[in-house]
Every structure is written in structure tokens, then in C-alpha cells.
Specification:
By secondary structure, the chain is mainly alpha-helical. The strands form 4 sheets. Strands 6-5-11-7-10-9-8 form a 7-stranded mixed β-sheet. It has a two-stranded antiparallel ribbon with strand order 1-2. Helix 35 (667-686) runs antiparallel to helix 36 (695-709) and helix 42 (780-791) runs antiparallel to helix 44.
């Protein structure tokens, strides 16, 4: 492969001229290793020569610049012997604003001269017809003079040459078949992180993706799509047990375009690879076989935005897709247009949250929306972390927002079994360790075990120590130590590297990681081998392990060592765990341990708003906590970062892992985090409509994070105290408190607040607060009567939207809560008696019937349905009889042969009701008029 970024001259050139009559050249290119190696040597020779002449340009990485994908294709075309180089077009094709005059021309001429000395390139680069062909491929002849970097003699004859040498036209069927085969080959295996330290254990080999992939379950978040699900047919394959859950196999039963959200380590990218693999291989993993006829295309959004910034203003997703496919398949824009307009295609947009600039994120969102406008039959899935998505949310009516649910116990066990199947050949030992792991896993925080990334690390550590780590920090620290330090003992690899350097490897890796993490979160995240090597070289010099004469060679040896031990390869740490851990370790060892408090605070302030840094900062807090005798340091950090929303978002996000695991942090500091968060939530509510777009979503996000943290008993106790101690209590605060209780499975201790005269007075004035406060009471009929007396009959049917959560209350009314309680198995036998009581209290039964006829769905259970079945025929009051019938129909459509011989399963709701009106011989005019109006 050429240089370190994976571009091969032979592959690139072969893809351009395949099936175009250059058979002899194509045959020669098959020995690509030799050609690529020689070409690499020539590029490096010229780059090194010019780096000495121009040490301060291109970050002293000239070779890396000319092997970037965009630059590479232009460079090759300029190297042909007969090429006449147009300097004006060079200026248009390359950014020369920061380069010395004629620098690119100098590089090209130097490289041409060097290549001419190599016999492997003499005939190749002297071939005029090949030069003409490359000028014309993917372009119309009339556009060449404007857009190409080539000015060649006889350009008007190019099409004639290509037509003679390229008798085959684009064959869509052949292309799609070949493309899917290549795609399967590229994604069918994953870099399996087994990596056991014992020499008898299989080590880090690539494994079949299907052999390790555990199918996740999804939860629908979009209220719009939840309502569609509720109105749907529960017997259709779209549904599984719960209306808001979607299984992996039923994912494509719906025709939605998806936004799939997940926490760090939820397996979003692996999910997309698995879907593409199953679609391309026509594997019957999905209930809907129609999806197998789709052509999958993958776009990594952080690479797209980088490409877009480097390109012209008109750059869009179509151009990028052509660009990304071009190197492997030779497809041109017209071909791709034909596919997108005539064939079924599905696009996978990965990593929306990894676009860090909000304006860039909005720009990409618009590009995706416009792409769907241009190609309305195309389907898509876009992935993102939760944090980072809401800055530029998609329209939930057009995109169904779903989240990847954490693994349940069955999925955890499935992963462990698959992992061991790949890692341990001894069946007896395998079964014994799996059994022991399962017995121990129930004692570990489920937040750790249910995260696919953390689970994968936990299994590795258990495999080597037969002990399950108990905190996220222990997982990262132990995993890094196990997979880095112990490999040196067990892996028999000879690399000539000084022992003094190996003893400092943790510090060197941390220098490399911190540089790389900062670069990845910068506007131009350009990571190259040369820059990585320079970073290591500087680290060695700083540690007095090298000097200017030998630093480059020692750095290269260190990176070779890292590659052989599967720690750092292809310009990246082989597992994100290493990158995050060593970045946190760098801040801790270089800043915190040297008591550079201001610099530490500056780094935290700089990155605390960036979700990409959450894990790093969380690990940093744990590093600091480990060496502290008291809460002073951590309390100071918490208090210093508890005033703005972005900081609170991090502190709350980390809470299930970080705050409960910190020993040296006071209860006071934790209460402060929640108090400030509540203040921000209430401020945003008080000023809704006056603030910029997106602030409403910020309010929802902060509230949802508090909700999530109530799952942790210690944090729940802290939240309880923060609310009870809150000073500025008003209507919004009371509703915040009651909404939190409404969605919480555990009881909060807020009786002291509820018993105050201020709360009781507010309760009698606000129907929504009243509804929340009594929503879970057992005296539901008495509460509804009291509600009627306080707020009137009209308010009974008035819908209330939630103030602080966007997943639940939407138009929920007092009468809805009444029927939810009434329909429970404990209360259903009071149904008809309660209807009479409500009528005596000014709520006519005919109004209740009207409500039930228009409300789409009320959940129920078997006992309730059975009671309704058994009693409807015995009720004399016609209104009560129809109310019972509608409740049954709203709860289930499985009522064939119920007091009738007619089959009504497939009838619509209004048709069923009219059938039963005839069956029961209903004569009440009000009922008939109401039902006929449906």
C-alpha cells in the first residue's frame, strides 16, 4: 500500500482502465506490491529532499500531502511523459496559497525525473493513449479543458480512442453484483478484540462479523411515529411485545428513514456494517425480504464534512459518494444517478455527532435532507450519539428517531458465548468459564454490563483474571494494562528498540494520544503517519531518549513496536479504549500531577462542551480521585463547572458512571450539580418562546438526564435532597417535581413539600399539576369528581402536554387517567357503577362514549377483556353497553364470534361498532347519531 493511508497506485490505475482495452498494462499492474513499493520509495525520496529545502511548509509532511486521496489522482495524471502542465489549472486544483511559488511544479518535475530512472514506470508513463484516457474518464470532452488538470495534444480524439478501447457500456446489473461482492469482502470480518495474553489463546485475528454480532433492540423515540404504531394493527409483523420497541429483524418492516441514537459504545457503526453485510449477502435476517433488493452505500460523515471543506462550494453528497466509490469501482456520476433513480438504494450516514461545529452539523443535515428530496425513493439510516444530535435535529415526521437499547441479560449471555466460541478451543474450559462469568455478572452494575463496548472489555479482563471489574475506570485501566503491558511478556516478537524507551512507553503513548485526540476534535482532523511519527519523535527528545539525529528512526521503531503489539496501527489506536485512556492519563500526569491547576481547568473548560471528550474527562476525574485524601480537589472542579448548561450536561451524563464511583466528592457538591440543573431547566421554561431554536430541546435533555440518574439509588437520594432543599418553589418547580415522580418507578419523599399551604393552593388552581399529583392514586373516581368541581366539566377532556419531558405526556387528559385506572384488573368490576356516579356528578355517559369513539387506543389485560366479554350482553343500559363494547374494541380486535356469527376481524373500528349496534338492536337516537357520524 502506498505510504500509510491505504492508496495503491496499481489499484487506483487498474480501476480506472479496467475493461478499456489496456489489457497488457492491467496484467502488469497485477504485480502491484512491487509497483507500489517502488512508487512509495520515489515519493519518499522526493518528499525528503524537498522537506530539507522547505522545512516549514505542510507541517514538514510533504509526502503525506501528496498521498491524500484528493491530491493523489491529480498527481498521477501530471506524471505522464507527454503531459503538458498548465500552471493555471494547478493553482485551481491545489491550494497553493501557503506554498512557495512553483512548489507543486517543482515536486512534480522532481518525481517525474525520479520515476524515469525506474524501468517499472518508463513504459507506463510514456503511454500517450493511457494519458488521454485518464484525461477523459468521468468527464465530457467539452468539460475537459475547463476542469481537467491535463492539457494534451489531440484531446479531441480522446472519445474516439475510448470508444475503440471501451466497447462495453456501463452494465448496471454487473456493477451492482461486483459492488456487493467487494462490499461483503470489505466488511465481512472485524478486528476481533479477543487478544488474550496467554500464548495458547487466539490473539486479535480478524473474525467473521456475523460470528460475534449480537442483534440489538431499538426503542422508538419520535412521538409522531409512536402514534402511528399505536394506530397500527397489533397483529402485523411490525409489532413486537411493546408498542415502542422494534426488534432487529423487524427493522425494515416499516418504511421509515431512521435516526438511530446510542450511547458511546452502543455499537452504532458495527450495527451499520452488519446491516450492509446482511443486505449485500441477501441473508434472511430481516422479516421484510424487500430490503434485500436494496443497494447499500456507506458515508462516514466526519470524512464527508472534511471533503466538503476541501472542495468547491458546490460539493454535495452525490459528488462525495462518487469520489468515495471511485477508487474501488471506477463508477462515474451518471452511473450513480442511474442507480439512485432507477434502483432501490439505502444510504448509511454514520457519526452525525462527530461533526463538532454546529454550523457544519446543520449544513450536513441540510445536505441529507436535500439528497432525499432529489432521490425520494432512497432510504437512509443516520447514526449519532444522544449528546451532539439535538443541536441539529431532523424533522421527526420525516425521520423516525430511535435509540439502541442497552443489552438485556439474554443479549449479554449471547455475546459472552459468541466471544468464548472464538477465543477458547477447549470446550470444557469454555463452558466452565462462561458459567462462572454468568454467575458473577449479576453482581456488577448493569449500566456497565449492558454497554456492548464495556462488555467486550469486561470479558477480556475476566478471561485473563477470572474477575469482573466493578467500575468503568477499572475496566479502562485494567484493560489497557492487560493488553499493553502483559503482551510484552507473552508475545515473542523481536524488535530492536531500547529498553529505556520501553520503560517510558506509557508516557510516549499518552503524548501520542493527547495530540491525536486534540487533532480529531479540531476543524481539520488530519492524522497521518508522518505527523504521528513526528509527535513520537518530539516525545522521545523531550524525555531525553533521542536527539535530532536519531529521533526519526527511533520513533519509526516505536511505532513498529506498537503495530506488532496491535496497539497503534494505520495511524490510529487499535481500540478507542487506548486512545481515551492515554489521553486522560496525559492530562493527569502532565498537568494535574504537576499541580498546574489553571492549565487543568483551562483544558476542562475548553473541552467540557464537546461530547467527544466526555469519556476522557470522566476518566480524568477518576485519576484525580484515586490519589486524593479528601473532597477538596474534586469539589473545586465540580463547583467551577456547575454554572453553565454545557458543563452540567457533562456532569449529568457521567453521573451513572463517574459521580457514584468517586470516593472523594462531597454530597454538597453533587447536590449543587442538580440544584443548578433545576435552575437552568426552570429558567428555560420561563423564557420559552423568547430564546433561540434548540433551547427547548436543551430543557428536555437536562430533564431526561436527571430521570436517567434516578436509576442509581445513591444519585436518587442526592436528587431527592436537591429538590427538597430547593429555594425558589413555584408552579413550574412543582410541575417539574411531579413530572419526575410520574415517570419514576421509585417513590420520592416529597410529602413535606406537598403538605405546605403554598403547594396545596397552587394545586387547586392548576389542573395539570392536580392531574400529575393524583395520577397514581387508588381513589381515582373520587379524584375525578374533585377535579370536576375545581376545574369544570370542560377541563375533564382537556389535553395537557408535558412541560419538561418530550417523551410521554402529549394531550393526556383527566378522563384518560380515569379510564387507565378504571381498566385495571382490580377496578374493572366497578366500571358500570362508576359510570352512574359520574353521570350524577354532571358527566353524562354519552360524552364519555363520544370521547372513547375518538380515542385510538387504551391498553388493557386479559382479565379486563374477559370481564367485558362476559358482561356486555347482560347490560340493559344501551349507552353503558356500547361503552363496554368500545372499550373492548379499543383494547383488542380479536373479538370474532363474540355474540355474532359474522367475522369482523378485518373490519375498521366504526364498521365493527355499527355491526354490533345492529346485533344489540340499539335504538337510542343519541347513540345512533354519534356512531353514524364516525
Amino acid at each position: 500500500m502506498l505510504i500509510e493511508i491505504g492508496i495503491s497506485l496499481a489499484t487506483w490505475l487498474g480501476g480506472k482502465i479496467a475493461d478499456k482495452g489496456f489489457d497488457a498494462i492491467c496484467e502488469k499492474l497485477k504485480s502491484k506490491e512491487d509497483i507500489d513499493a517502488k512508487f512509495k520509495q520515489c515519493v519518499e525520496h522526493v518528499a525528503n529532499k524537498l522537506e530539507k529545502k522547505y522545512p516549514d511548509i505542510l507541517g514538514n509532511s510533504i509526502g503525506d500531502f501528496f498521498t491524500q486521496e484528493k491530491v493523489f489522482g491529480e498527481l498521477i495524471k501530471l506524471l505522464f511523459v507527454n503531459q503538458i502542465i498548465n500552471e493555471e489549472v494547478i493553482a485551481q486544483s491545489f491550494d497553493t496559497s501557503t506554498l512557495p511559488r512553483d512548489f507543486i511544479l517543482e515536486f512534480v518535475n522532481e518525481l517525474k525525473s525520479k520515476l524515469e530512472q525506474e524501468t517499472a514506470f518508463q513504459d507506463l508513463l510514456a503511454n500517450k493513449e493511457l494519458c488521454d484516457a485518464l484525461a477523459s474518464i468521468s468527464k465530457k470532452v467539452e468539460d475537459i479543458s475547463k476542469n481537467s488538470t491535463l492539457i494534451v495534444a489531440g484531446i479531441d480524439k480522446t472519445n474516439e480512442i475510448l470508444q475503440k478501447q471501451s466497447p462495453k457500456e456501463f452494465n448496471l446489473k454487473d456493477y451492482v453484483s461486483g459492488y456487493k461482492k467487494k462490499l461483503i469482502n470489505n466488511i465481512k470480518t472485524v478486528n476481533f478484540l479477543g487478544l488474550g495474553i496467554d500464548p495458547s489463546i487466539q490473539k486479535g485475528k480478524r473474525k467473521e462479523l456475523a460470528s460475534i454480532f449480537v442483534k440489538p433492540t431499538f426503542q422508538i423515540n419520535s412521538k409522531y411515529h409512536l402514534e402511528i404504531e399505536e394506530r397500527g394493527n397489533k397483529n402485523s409483523p411490525c409489532f413486537i411485545e411493546e408498542k415502542d420497541k422494534v426488534s432487529f429483524c423487524n427493522l425494515f418492516n416499516r418504511g421509515y428513514n431512521y435516526i438511530i441514537l446510542g450511547n458511546p459504545g452502543a455499537g452504532k457503526s458495527l450495527l451499520l456494517e452488519a446491516i450492509m453485510l446482511y443486505i449485500s449477502g441477501k441473508s434472511k435476517e430481516f422479516s421484510s425480504e424487500d430490503i434485500l433488493s436494496y443497494i447499500p452505500f456507506y458515508i462516514e460523515l466526519k470524512k464527508y464534512i472534511a471533503f466538503k471543506k476541501r472542495g468547491d462550494k458546490g460539493c454535495n453528497l452525490l459528488e462525495y459518494l462518487v469520489h468515495s466509490l471511485d477508487y474501488s469501482s471506477g463508477i462515474i456520476e451518471d452511473n450513480l444517478l442511474e442507480i439512485l433513480k432507477k434502483e432501490k438504494a439505502i444510504l448509511f450516514f454514520d457519526g452525525f455527532d462527530e461533526i463538532f461545529n454546529v454550523n457544519d452539523k446543520i449544513s450536513v443535515k441540510h445536505d441529507i435532507e436535500n439528497f432525499h428530496t432529489d432521490f425520494p425513493t432512497v432510504r437512509s439510516i443516520t447514526t449519532s450519539r444522544f449528546t451532539g444530535y439535538n443541536e441539529a435535529k431532523f424533522d421527526e415526521k420525516e425521520w423516525c428517531e430511535m435509540s439502541i437499547l442497552p443489552f438485556n441479560n439474554e443479549q449479554i449471555i449471547e455475546y459472552v458465548q459468541k466471544w468464548y466460541q472464538l477465543e477458547e478451543e477447549d470446550a470444557e474450559k469454555r463452558d466452565s468459564e462462561i458459567s462462572d462469568f454468568i454467575s458473577k455478572m449479576y453482581n456488577i452494575d448493569n449500566d456497565l454490563m449492558s454497554n456492548p463496548l464495556l462488555l467486550s472489555l469486561i470479558v477480556i479482563l475476566y478471561r485473563n483474571n477470572l474477575k469482573i471489574p466493578e467500575s468503568k475506570f477499572e475496566i479502562y485501566q485494567s484493560c489497557t494494562n492487560t493488553l499493553v503491558d502483559k503482551w510484552d511478556v507473552h508475545r515473542q516478537i523481536n524488535i530492536e528498540i531500547e529498553n529505556a524507551i520501553l520503560q517510558k512507553k506509557e508516557s510516549i503513548f499518552s503524548d501520542l494520544a493527547f495530540w491525536q485526540y486534540k487533532t480529531l476534535s479540531s476543524p481539520n482532523p488530519d492524522i497521518t503517519y508522518h505527523k504521528a511519527k513526528s509527535t513520537v519523535a518530539d516525545s522521545l527528545v523531550k524525555k531525553k531518549l533521542a536527539d535530532d539525529d536519531n529521533k526519526d528512526s527511533l520513533a519509526a521503531s516505536f511505532l513498529e513496536y506498537a503495530q506488532k503489539r496491535s496497539i497503534y496501527f494505520d495511524n490510529n489506536f487499535t481500540h478507542k479504549t487506548f486512545l481515551e485512556y492515554y489521553t486522560a492519563y496525559w492530562i493527569y500526569s502532565n498537568i494535574e500531577k504537576k499541580h498546574k491547576t489553571e492549565e487543568r481547568n483551562k483544558i476542562i473548560k475548553q473541552y467540557i462542551e464537546n461530547p467527544f471528550w466526555y469519556v476522557v474527562l470522566e476518566l480524568l476525574l477518576n485519576f484525580i480521585d484515586k490519589d486524593q485524601p479528601d473532597p477538596e480537589i474534586l469539589d473545586g472542579i465540580i463547583e467551577d463547572n456547575s454554572n453553565d448548561i454545557a458543563s452540567l450536561s457533562f456532569l449529568l451524563q457521567a453521573s451513572p458512571y463517574a459521580l457514584p464511583s468517586l470516593k472523594n466528592i462531597s454530597e454538597r457538591a453533587q447536590i449543587l450539580v442538580y440544584t443548578r440543573t433545576i435552575e437552568h431547566i426552570l429558567f428555560l421554561k420561563a423564557n420559552e418562546g423568547k430564546m433561540a431554536d434548540g433551547k427547548e430541546q436543551v430543557r428536555y435533555n437536562l430533564f431526561s438526564k436527571i430521570q436517567q440518574n434516578t436509576v442509581n439509588p445513591k444519585q436518587k437520594e442526592i436528587i431527592n435532597k436537591a429538590i427538597n432543599n430547593f429555594q425558589n418553589k413555584n408552579l413550574a418547580f412543582y410541575i417539574f417535581m411531579e413530572e419526575l415522580c410520574y415517570y419514576d418507578d421509585f417513590k420520592f419523599d416529597f410529602d413535606e413539600i406537598r403538605n405546605t399551604s403554598e403547594y396545596q393552593e397552587t394545586l387547586r388552581k392548576n389542573s395539570y399539576l392536580f392531574l400529575l399529583s393524583y395520577s397514581k392514586t387508588m381513589n381515582y373516581i373520587q379524584i375525578l369528581i374533585k377535579y370536576i368541581k375545581l376545574f369544570g366539566i370542560g377541563s375533564v377532556f382537556e389535553g395537557h402536554n408535558a412541560w419538561f419531558t418530550n417523551s410521554g405526556f402529549k394531550g393526556i387528559s383527566a378522563i384518560f387517567h380515569y379510564f387507565v385506572n378504571q381498566m385495571s384488573s382490580h377496578n374493572i368490576k366497578n366500571l358500570y357503577g362508576n359510570l352512574k356516579i359520574l353521570e350524577k356528578n354532571s358527566l353524562p355517559k354519552i360524552q364519555l362514549l363520544e370521547y372513547l369513539l375518538t380515542y385510538p387506543y387504551l391498553g388493557t389485560n386479559y382479565e379486563t377483556m374477559q370481564y367485558l366479554r362476559d358482561t356486555i350482553g347482560k347490560i340493559n343500559d344501551e349507552t353503558e353497553k356500547i361503552i363496554g363494547l368500545v372499550l373492548l374494541i379499543n383494547s383488542s380486535n380479536d373479538i370474532d364470534n363474540f355474540n355474532t356469527a359474522r367475522q369482523i376481524r378485518n373490519m375498521k373500528k366504526n364498521e365493527m361498532i355499527k355491526e354490533f349496534i345492529k346485533e344489540f338492536e340499539i335504538s337510542d337516537k343519541a347513540i345512533l347519531d354519534l356512531c353514524n357520524s364516525l
